[in-house]
């Protein structure tokens, strides 16, 4: 799974990325600091099942803090996108191709209104404009790919009597478009089966619908800590599904926790100071952050990551484990936890663990209830599953 972070320049994309991954990246108050995409590991947070079993788990990947398990997935932070990027403005839209493979997008806007669509410092910019232009640029990115060799494509479809949805799905497979999605979109748009009849507006509608389906998005109202930002947030909250966030505060908290100045579990509404040997400035900064958490509940970063994986992409977290022991052969308890699509079955999970487990599947056991389940059994979030297979 790959999640892309996008938005106009200077909105806090790299700060969000760094807060989520603690990777070393460049952050500056000017447009186009990021040129080459940053890739790193972000984590979703669940209440770990180790508590249910009265154990402390030992994750192989990710980590567990106070019985909150953090499960890894891949994040990518790309260069800022400006209006007209699809026509080559700013850094153009070529770099969007870094996002081809993304399953979903996190759009960062600056809710303080202090940066314009090109990332320049201003005051009173309407952050809603970012949402509007960005969607348009994404649609044009899809359109560009659809139109690549379009004439020849539409001719071939007719001459060779090809199935339109198959042909389009093939043309856009790099963007994660498949036949089922194409069929659904063609039906919704009521398009004829002769692509040579389609007008420019039909193509743009097609691009838009395919983009919405293959790059679902969460909008993040970043810089909510800035004075005046909450008024803007209140206005947009009614219109969009949008999460208030301070990537900068989350980054400061995670860095302080890494340096053992505080104890902080990402996404929580508090932290504990564990190093009392601090300068006045440090103390002031921590006080500011405490006040922020008191009024907002959390910084929003973890909420966004969870939302995109669990709500938008509809994933569930599944642990492999055994009824006899939750440990692997090295004694690590519940070392793995996998993100799978909601609706996955016991057999899907067996294949995920190992092809041989899938091929030689006999039964599975729901370790929490100790009940035996069959191939078709649908898994639930936070299930612990033992696979019994022929050797
Ligand atoms: N006040 C505040 N500033 C932020 C926040 N996130 C980022 N910034 C600042 O915004 C500027 C641009 O950040 P950066 O992450 O490089 O933006 P990008 O161009 O979108 O990647 C930097 O000066 C950051 O310190 C935030 O949540 N609150
Ligand atoms: Mg950046």
Protein described:
- The protein is of the alpha/beta class and 391 residues long.
- The chain has 3 domains: 2-127 and 216-307, Rossmann fold (3-Layer(aba) Sandwich); 140-212, Helicase, Ruva Protein, domain 3; 323-389, Beta-grasp domain (Ubiquitin-like (UB roll)), CATH 3.10.20.30.
- It contains 12 helices and 14 strands.
- It has helices at 13-21, 128-147, 150-159, 164-171, 179-189, 200-214, 229-237, 247-258, 280-296, 301-312, 346-353, 355-359, and strands at residues 2-6, 38-47, 63-65, 68-77, 104-110, 217-222, 242-244, 262-263, 272-273, 315-320, 338-341, 361-366, 371-373, 383-389.
- Strands 1, 2, 3, 4, 5, 6 and 7 form a 7-stranded mixed β-sheet that branches. The protein has a 5-stranded mixed β-sheet with strand order 11-10-14-12-13.
- A hairpin with a 2-residue loop joins strand 3 and strand 4.
- Helix 1 runs parallel beside helix 8 and helix 4 (164-171) crosses helix 5 (179-189).
- The longest helix is centred in the middle third of the chain and has 20 residues, at 128-147.
- The radius of gyration is 24 Å and the shape is flat.
- The model has no long low-confidence stretch (mean pLDDT 93).
- The structure holds guanosine-5'-diphosphate and magnesium ion.
- Residues 13-14, 33-34 line the site of magnesium ion.
- The site of magnesium ion has 4 residues, from helix 1.
């Amino acid at each position: 799974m790959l999640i892309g972070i996008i938005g106009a320049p200077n909105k806090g994309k790299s700060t969000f990325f760094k807060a989520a991954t603690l990777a070393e990246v460049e952050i500056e108050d000017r447009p186009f600091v990021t040129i080459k995409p940053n890739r790193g590991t972000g984590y979703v947070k669940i209440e770990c099942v180790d508590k249910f079993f009265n154990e402390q788990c030992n994750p192989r990947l990710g980590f567990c803090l106070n019985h909150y398990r953090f499960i890894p997935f891949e994040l990518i932070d790309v260069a800022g996108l400006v209006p007209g990027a699809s026509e080559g403005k700013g850094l153009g839209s070529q770099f969007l191709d870094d996002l081809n493979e993304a399953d979903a997008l996190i759009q960062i806007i600056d809710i303080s209104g202090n940066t314009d669509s090109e990332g320049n410092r201003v005051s009173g910019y309407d952050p809603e404009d970012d949402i509007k232009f960005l969607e348009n640029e994404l649609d044009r990115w899809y359109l560009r790919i659809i139109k690549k060799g379009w004439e020849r494509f539409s001719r071939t479809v007719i001459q060779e009597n090809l199935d339109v949805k198959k042909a389009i799905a093939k043309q856009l497979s790099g963007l994660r478009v498949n036949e089922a999605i194409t069929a659904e979109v063609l039906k919704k748009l009521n398009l004829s089966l002769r692509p040579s009849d389609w007008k420019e507006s039909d193509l743009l509608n097609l691009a838009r619908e395919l983009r919405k389906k293959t790059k679902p998005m969460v909008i993040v109202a970043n810089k909510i800590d800035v004075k005046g930002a909450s008024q803007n947030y209140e206005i947009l909250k009614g219109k969009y599904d949008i999460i208030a966030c301070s990537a900068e505060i989350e980054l400061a908290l995670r860095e302080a926790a890494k340096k053992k100045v505080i104890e902080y579990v990402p996404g929580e509404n508090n932290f504990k100071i564990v190093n009392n040997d601090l300068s006045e400035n440090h103390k002031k900064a921590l006080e500011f952050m405490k006040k922020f958490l008191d009024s907002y509940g959390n910084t929003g970063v973890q909420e966004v990551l969870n939302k995109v994986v669990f709500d938008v992409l509809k994933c569930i977290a599944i642990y492999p484990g055994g009824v006899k022991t939750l440990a692997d052969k090295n004694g690590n308890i519940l070392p793995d936890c996998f993100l799978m699509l909601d609706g996955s079955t016991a057999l899907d999970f067996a294949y995920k663990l190992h092809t041989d487990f899938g091929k030689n599947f006999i039964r599975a056991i729901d370790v929490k209830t100790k009940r035996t389940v069959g191939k078709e059994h649908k898994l639930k979030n936070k299930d612990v599953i033992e696979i019994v297979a022929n050797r």
